[in-house]
Design brief:
The chain is of the alpha+beta class. The chain has one domain. Helices cover about 20% and strands about 20% of the residues. The protein has five helices and eleven strands, in the order αβββββββββαααββα. The strands form three sheets. Strands 2, 4, 5, 7, 8 and 9 form a six-stranded mixed sheet that branches. Strands 1-3-6 form a three-stranded antiparallel sheet, with no helix packed on it. A two-stranded antiparallel sheet has the order 10-11. Helix 3 packs antiparallel against helix 4. The longest helix has 20 residues. The radius of gyration is 19 Å and the shape is globular.
Length: about 290
Amino acid sequence: MSPVRLSWLLCFTAIVLRASAESTILTPPPTVTAGVQTPVGFDFSDSTCNLDTRGSKGCDFPFMQIWLMANKPSPEPYDPRRLNILERMCILSPCVYTNLTSFNITLPVTAVANGPKYWLDYTLFRRNNYTIITNNSSGYEFFSPIWSAFQSTNFSVDGSISQWTPYDLTGRFADDNGNRLWFSQLNCEALECARNCANIIEAPLVPNTAGAIPALDECVQACPGMGWDPTKCTIENATKASSTTTRKTNIPPTNTTPGQSNPATTQSAATQVQPSWLGGTILTVVGLLILSS
């Protein structure tokens, strides 16, 4: 490995280690049983927002999506050109208030395969008052801190009745589909169906998967459970009641916590979307640099 590549890799590793060591904000239990409501510890005060190279803009957004991340087993036969350390899979909770200290998640029994390793990730959001509000990403402003994927402890899954498909094990799912309109709507209840769509329709097209694939889009959008509903929001700590309280309203509940913005206010009419696949792409590049040296 050249000195330049080694220096770049060491710098990247140091930043990641700092982010993960000092800024763990999501603490699920070591094992999450699919189909069972599970409490997750949460401390937003340790968010890596302020470490983000783009500054802290977006850190005051009062709500967040919770995403499921997977580190899948190596494909068989192992392909050294692919090195996806973490991959975003699906939205596990559509809306959680950032001033909580805990909340509940329930992983569908069909979402992913049993075993290690899984993480949680988050995307901050607020209502964009300049756009018509609908039950999808239109009308909301998003911000994903670039190190957010390293702010959760990992866990294993048991109780699942699902298995990885051959296409899943290539580690291409998020890379190939991160820019597709339906990816930001992919609820974990719809994930197994979406994975099967990709295995049947998209896998035969590898490596030519960058363009439009209408059949794949139609298949995924018809999956049961597909869609993101930001109006179904967790607004109470998991420890305050026997089950997480959710409220169904026309818009997410108004934030009244000092120091955080009202979700109905925004600085501009433009929706600021941070691609959910950016972190995985950076990690893949690091892997490719190592393997090509």
